[in-house]
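From the shared-data thread, chain only:
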Amino acid sequence: MKQRPILILAIILTLIIELILIILVYNKVGTERLPSQIGRLTIQLILIIWVLSSKSNVGLFLLAGYHIVSGIFGLSSKGSAELLGQILIGFHIIIGIVIYFHDWIENKIGIKKTLGNNV
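Structure, as tokens:
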């Protein structure tokens, strides 16, 4: 598996944010939204495993698309007027772009060249 530190960092950040959201929503409304949140987390985990275990870019495209579409759908939600809602919308859109363009970002900041010389 090739080194993809920006992609790995984006995935870790995504999982941390998702788990924090699950805990916060559970504490606020109880188990009412837990099934849908676990469903979202499961879909993300399936896509993440696909991305990390495959050389195909289809999983990468779907994971990035999932975040971008989630951000766009968040624009029409009731919570989008609140600061946390706006932050989450921005997070989804930005993380989707970072996931899709992780190779370009790594090349621009020279991460791949550094890792390639040390291996």
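Residues 5-29 form the longest helix (25 residues).
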